[in-house]
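An instance follows:
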Amino acid sequence: MIKKIEKELKMIRYANGLMLSVVAIFIFLMVGILYQFSSNMRLFGDYFIAITAINAVQVVFSLNVSGLIASSAHKKSMQTVLPAMVCFGVSIITYLILGIKNLILYKAGSMDMQQLSGGMLYEAVLILVFMLYTAFCYKIFYIATAGFLIIFFATYIGMGAMNGTALYIFWVNHFSRGIATT
């Protein structure tokens, strides 16, 4: 089983546009990290960091269109198991990066314990939403994308309450008054 997985992972080097995808992943990661440490809107930085998992899975899916995989005995595994493993692995690494970032901000005094725990919970939910989107977007793209946007913004508004984000503050100031007066 492990040798089979190793063989499938080695196939990634034959992916279409591998270097461009690796550069895109690196750019998204760097923009997310820079956004984290230079802005009050840290949740958008979380978004940029978490999106790296989707880019990594796209690299794996680009293998499926090649004749090399179509004639392989590993075709079914390459289309189902490998993308899930890559998404899970990159998501774990992403969550580790976000955890280290939160620890640095906590030690620097930019965050208290409630913000730290709320941020880690938000980031876990965000990564879960990305993983679910990745699983569904290649089968039912429009429904998955609409569901992703609804869940993402609901999560952003709901979990942003813990971090006092600008979108949540805007929501409270403008829409809660209208609901309370009617």
Notes: The two ends are 62 Å apart (CA to CA). Residues 75-107 form the longest helix (33 residues).
